[in-house]
Write a structure and sequence with these properties.
Blueprint lengths: L14 H85 L1
Length: about 100
């Protein structure tokens, strides 16, 4: 970015010196602003990289949670099946005991 907006000029009387001082101050201000803009651009780039990393981690966590939920559903079905089997076996045992 071009920060030198003043290149020197001749003026009438004291205006040349005043213009030169103003121009040099303006050039210094432009240089500082350019440095700040560059720093902000770097910070923004770093923030965007961090956001991308966090989004990737979030997607990974969502996949892991979905996998766990699928496994838990399968386990719940197996538990329900075992409960039913135990209940049926208990009823069968009770009937056999009563017949004797």
């Amino acid at each position: 970015m071009k920060t030198e907006t003043y290149g020197g000029s001749q003026g009438f009387g004291k205006t040349g010196k005043a213009l030169e001082e103003f121009g040099e101050k303006q050039n210094a201000l432009n240089a500082r602003l350019s440095e700040h803009l560059d720093a902000l651009a770097r910070q923004l780039g770093e923030a965007m990289d961090r956001i991308a990393e966090l989004e990737a981690a979030r997607r990974s966590m969502e996949e892991q949670v979905a996998h766990c939920l699928t496994e838990m559903d399968g386990m719940q079905k197996e538990i329900d099946r075992l409960r039913l089997t135990a209940k049926l076996n208990s009823n069968t045992i009770d009937r056999l005991v009563k017949k004797q």
